[in-house]
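Technical note accompanying the year-one report. For the benefit of new consortium partners, we illustrate the data format agreed upon in the data management plan: each record pairs a sequence with a structure-token string. No post-processing was applied to the example shown here.
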Amino acid sequence: MDFLDDLKSKYSHQPTFLQAVEEMALSLKPLFDGEKGDYYKRAFVAIAEPERTLKFRVSWMDDSGKLQFNRGWRVEFNSVLGPYKGGLRFHPTANEGILKFLGFEQIFKNALTGLAMGGGKGGSDFDPKGKSDAEVIRFCQSFMTELARYLHPSTDVPAGDIGVGGREIGAMYGQYKRLKNKHGEGILTGKGALWGGSPFRPEATGYGLVYIMKIAVEKVGRSMEGMRCALSGSGNVCQYAAQKCIEFGAKVITASDSTGVMVFENGMTTAELAMMLDCKNVKRARLSTLEGTDGFTGKYTAGETPWSLDIKYDMALPCATQNEINGEAAALLVKNGVFAVGEGANLPTDMEGQNVFRDNSVIYIPGKAANAGGVGVSGLEMAQNAQRLTWKPEEVDTRLKDMMAHIYKQMEDHSMGGTLEQGANIAGFLMVVQGMQELGWFY
């Protein structure tokens, strides 16, 4: 697609961003080949440029009294449909290109929810692992001191992501309150229940992932009952996806972290899930420390992932990070019976892996649709904050289920004879283009 040549030239140093752009463009080929093809190509190139990229230094004091420095970013990508909305990632691999890829995906994910949210992403190359609580809090306070001037409920509303959970959100929101003397402002989502958070926000991404996959498998006459599900990761998304899989009668066969994979031959129990939550959320320890614990049947294999093991799975739910499933891993999954893949992470399947799934007619729901429940409930949290209300958990859960069903229908309605993945991309893109045109930002 030669209309992308200028982008490729300018951002050759940001390969993950270009990967996301190219994959999106391939899905939109039916639009680009139509009678309005030139119009849609120009719109695509415009959308692929962030409206604003903020870069700043973050200075913080470690426990030994030494001043440390990290880099911080906020990519305010597209505000056509509403304020910039997207998470903050604290991880040593974070850089501008990774955050641009995430922000680009976020534009269309947020559009699919039907809520008034634009797309953005941010974060830092700070690594919370191995840091004391005091060090993490001091870093978060410094990060928010730099970012606070750009935030407002109608401008930019970040949330959490990898490395940014309740502890980090709390520290950043506390610093914002100190700086601005404004209480109750919804400038972050994923907040604690005591100070403006929404019921079901922690669970929303994992729950929403399983809700939409349940719809997908039932559409082809299958049931979640007894289904062998492979999950990667062991953080928030994996934890709550596992919980909902177990609730629906599925067998959770795997969970993982950066050093290896835990396998439950007969499926994870609710008691074992509770032990995993304590390990990761309270003790902040490696999964390997659970092996051999009383009542824990999981077997840990170092240096492997759920996608490198020669094990039978029915469904794959990658919930860890980008590009974790390549062509070889996808072929192994297909060989072992996987018929459905739902992305709890952002872009966890590379282009070769996606092609393997398409060639074998695997149900494949991309992250911008499958994991949209998290940002969807973030949008509901913003609505509650604006009204100074907190809805009952049952109401939020019902809205989440309805939202995932709405996203699935959009995928079906816009597939143009292609795949659900194509439907998700076309639906999100057309909404953003229409918004740009109606605002006079593109014609």
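Partners are asked to follow this layout when depositing records. The chain has three domains: 1-49, 50-185, 202-370.
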